[in-house]
Amino acid sequence: MTNKIEVSWKGQMLFESVAPEGNVMIDAAPEVGGQGKGLRPKAMMLTALAGCSAMDIASLLKKMRAEVDDFKIEVEANLTEEHPKIYDKVKVTFRFYGKDFKKDKIEKAVNLSEERYCGVMEMFRKFSEVTTEIVYVEK
């Protein structure tokens, strides 16, 4: 299967990415001529990583009947100093909110996403050291 997007210049450093599923704006920081009207490309990469895992986990928790009140995924990444600047270390924190957590099922869902389903995480592992953590927040 082939995925295809098209990026169109909208002036200055603003671009629009158009995919079959929707559009997203891309922009640069003001100090390099951007206007802050969209995500920066590297932030989009981190968003793709969190989004990929989030969708896996939401689906798996529902199938496993291990629903939580809410969950959030935080991604922190270290950007190298030299050009081309890349993320060499990435930490993904999965935060689950609720009570009476079915921790075994939640951990299984996270592990399945990390190890089997999330292709974006597998791509990140090709160039970064990826670590993960699960945090439970009692409500």
UniProtKB/TrEMBL annotation:
- The chain's coiled-coil residues are none
**Protein known as:** Putative redox protein
PANTHER family, sorted? PROTEIN YHFA
Q: Which organism is it from?
A: Lutibacter maritimus
Gene3D superfamilies given in the database record = 3.30.300.20
UniProt superkingdom: Bacteria
Q: Name one Pfam family in it.
A: OsmC
